Amino acid sequence: SVDTTPITATLFPGDGIGPEIADSVKQVFRAADVPIEWEEHYVGTEVDPRTQSFLTWESLESVRRNRVGLKGPMATPIGKGHRSLNLTLRKELNLYANVRPCYSLPGYKTRYDNVDLITIRENTEGEYSGLEHQVVRGVVESLKIITRHASLRVAEYAFHYAKAHGRERVSAIHKANIMQKTDGLFLKCCREVAGKYPEIKYEEVVIDNCCMMLVKNPALFDVLVMPNLYGDIISDLCAGLIGGLGLTPSCNIGEGGIALAEAVHGSAPDIAGKNLANPTALMLSAITMLRHLELHGKADRIQNAILNTIAEGKYRTADLGGTSTTTDFTEAIIDHL
Ligand code: NAD
């Protein structure tokens, strides 16, 4: 079956708690017989002139070659003369969509227990194009760039994702009533793609109304697709609905079908090396990678083991109010497999 062909994937354990939680992922994957061989790459200790950053050219080549990877949190080194690590990855691998599945974890009580939505954020342009300047003293200008190319590309991905994952509806989030040209073009592209997917319901929701609906009743949404800035804000809002960034997985989709999964949280230097980190977000991110590879059997099995461990409540790390170490929690997940 497809579930046993060996696949090579790049692994960036990252900094701080990164290596500890990456280790948990490796152990759980091994215990579940996931047919993945990891190719490990660490962030370099000096700037690689070929990437102008601490990420080596070889590590980027590894992702390009394998087309799938998992990234732990990286602490961007301080100092001048280099590009930020995340920016290097985004630009070099052309990571154009950030996908965050957001679902309630049974047994971990938050305000809602019925969240099950996906946010898909355009990740290359919009308000984050980096084009800001001063016009005259006291007046500055920032350019919001929306292109047909990038809008169609992210809309295509959203509908493709909805179809592949048995989702029913895609909502395009916008402010086209005010941003008529930019968000207007974004919506036009979404509509065009929606026309090719008659089996998926399509709707358009104004961003402010979307925020209100999300906090009142998140079950109203299924798949949401949006320009960069709205996506940045809404995806964190959604993470908050299920218990915070420590539980939220994400996956970056790049040109040519690259998928680079990563946890949303940082390297947590305050607890690094203490066996206290919660590996859930990185594990759930690794599961988005398995789903990208259509290894749904393995993905379901590991996801259930994680959810059952958390629901059981016996082994939880400190951030979830428990006293377990990373190692105990990981072993509990393996027992649930
Ligand atoms: P952080 O997410 O690392 O930590 C914020 C708080 O959350 C800390 O108290 C930390 O202990 C806790 N926390 C985070 N992840 C946790 C986990 N898995 N288990 C238990 N507790 C967890 O944010 P920060 O302190 O603002 O950033 C620290 C470093 O991480 C910085 O160098 C920053 O640049 C980097 N960072 C990297 C990424 C990334 O690689 N995607 C994202 C955010 C921050």
From TrEMBL:
Per the similarity annotation, which family is this?
Answer: Belongs to the isocitrate and isopropylmalate dehydrogenases family.
What SMART domains is this protein classified in?
Iso_dh
Organism annotation = Dipteronia dyeriana
Tell me which InterPro entries the record gives.
Answer: IsoCit/isopropylmalate_DH_CS, Isocitrate_DH_NAD, IsoPropMal-DH-like_dom
User: Quaternary structure?
Assistant: Heterooligomer of catalytic and regulatory subunits.
GO terms assigned for molecular function: isocitrate dehydrogenase (NAD+) activity; magnesium ion binding; NAD binding
Membrane-spanning residues: none
The family database entries (Pfam families) matched by this protein are listed as: Iso_dh
GO (cellular component) term, any one: mitochondrion
Keywords for the protein's UniProt record, in alphabetical order: Magnesium, Metal-binding, NAD, Oxidoreductase, Transit peptide
Q: What are the names of the required cofactors?
A: Mg(2+); Mn(2+)
Gene Ontology annotations of biological process type: isocitrate metabolic process; tricarboxylic acid cycle
Where the record annotates domain Isopropylmalate dehydrogenase-like, the positions are: 8-333
Q: What is this protein called?
A: Isopropylmalate dehydrogenase-like domain-containing protein
